[in-house]
Design a protein that fits this description.
The protein is of the alpha/beta class and 244 residues long. Helices cover 39% and strands 17% of the residues. The longest helix is centred in the first third of the chain and has 20 residues. Bound molecules: zinc ion (ZN).
Length: 244
C-alpha cells in the first residue's frame, strides 16, 4: 500500500486547538495531506470547565457550516484533499446531553474518547441505538472510531466483549501519534486480534497546532509492522465512498 496521508484527528479553535479551520486546511494542502478530519471536543464532563468545547447548538451549527465551506472550496479548486466533518465525544458526558445536541447524520466521523470499561461499551451502544432509530434516507451514518484508545483497560479480561463490539458497529482503532504508548509492541496480541477480525484502523495525530498535522509516518509504520494495511485500506474505501 502506498503511504496514505491521512490525519483524522485535528482540533481547531472551536475547542482547544490553536488554529482556525481555514488555517488547518491551508496548511494541510501545503503538506500534501489527502484526508483530514476536524474533530473538536464535545463534552459536559469535568473537561467542559477546563477547555473550550462545542457547547451550544449555535456553535455546533457554525462549526459544521465552516467545515462545509472549506469542503466546497476544495471541490471548486479541484484540490486533492478530502476534508471530513468530525467530532470527538467524551463518553463521560451525560447521555441526554449527547442525544440533545448531536445529530450524527451531520458528521462524517464520530470519535468516542475514554472508552475504558464494559460499561463504556454499553453507554456507546445505547447512544448508537438511539441515533439509528432516527433514519435519514439520504444521509449515511457517520464512520465511528475510538480516540486514543488504551488497550490495557481490556487486554486481560474483556477482549471478548471489545472485539465483537468493534466488529458489529464497524468502529475503528486510531493509531494516534500523540499517544504512541497505545500502539506499543507489548500490545501486539491486541493488534493480532484486530487483524484476525478485520477491525478497521485509522491514523490521527490529535493535532492542536499546525506543526502536529503531519506526524503520520510513525503510526503508518506501526500499521505496517502489525500487518494491518488491509484494515486501513478498508477504512480508506469508506472515506472515499462518502459524499461531501
Ligand atoms: Zn482529541
Amino acid at each position: 500500500m502506498a503511504f496514505p496521508r491521512l490525519n483524522l484527528h485535528i482540533h481547531s479553535k472551536y475547542s482547544d486547538g490553536g488554529n482556525s479551520i481555514k488555517q488547518i486546511v491551508r496548511e494541510s494542502i501545503e503538506y500534501g495531506l489527502n484526508y483530514i478530519a476536524i474533530t473538536d471536543h464535545f463534552t459536559n464532563s469535568w473537561k467542559a470547565s477546563v477547555i473550550p468545547t462545542l457547547n451550544s447548538k449555535e456553535k455546533l451549527t457554525n462549526y459544521i457550516l465552516e467545515i462545509k465551506q472549506c469542503q466546497n472550496y476544495l471541490k471548486r479548486k479541484n484540490i486533492n484533499l478530502r476534508l471530513f466533518k468530525g467530532i470527538e465525544i467524551d463518553i463521560s458526558s451525560s447521555e441526554s446531553y449527547i442525544l440533545n445536541h448531536i445529530n450524527p447524520y451531520k458528521f462524517d466521523i464520530i470519535l468516542f474518547e475514554y472508552l475504558e470499561s464494559p460499561e463504556g461499551i454499553a453507554f456507546i451502544k445505547n447512544i448508537l441505538k438511539s441515533w439509528k432509530k432516527k433514519n435519514h434516507p439520504n444521509k449515511n451514518f457517520p464512520i465511528l472510531g475510538l480516540a486514543h484508545f488504551d488497550p490495557s483497560f481490556f487486554i486481560y479480561s474483556y477482549f471478548d466483549v471489545l472485539i465483537p463490539f468493534l466488529k458489529e458497529y464497524n468502529i475503528y482503532f486510531e493509531f494516534n501519534s500523540s499517544y504512541s504508548q497505545y500502539y506499543a509492541r507489548k500490545f501486539q496480541d491486541f493488534f493480532l486480534k484486530l487483524k484476525e477480525s478485520s477491525i478497521l484502523v485509522a491514523i490521527g495525530c490529535d493535532s492542536h497546532n499546525l506543526l502536529d498535522l503531519m506526524n503520520i509516518e510513525e503510526p503508518f509504520n506501526k500499521i505496517r509492522d502489525y500487518e494491518l494495511e488491509d484494515n486501513l485500506g478498508k477504512l480508506i474505501n469508506l472515506l472515499e465512498s462518502r459524499e461531501d
